[in-house]
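Same chain as my last thread, 82 residues:
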Amino acid sequence: MLASKFIAWWQEGVILSKSQAADWGLLHLSGGWKENLKRCKKLRKDPSMVTCLEYSEWLSNLEPAIIEASHDLDRALETTIH
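reply #2:
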């Protein structure tokens, strides 16, 4: 959610909550990692879900999506700087 939040701020000058950033990212981002935003938002609203097997497995496999989000943030910063 933070990558989405920072991209929204950098591209549109808006400051969003993490939940708002998840919604914004689902509408405006194209990377495959954005599909994780919906689940991130659900977990943020109900942190107790982290104990569910489905969510614990998802979290343990989230690293590639985080790396992809980081690369998309880097690209967003590069394209608006140049």
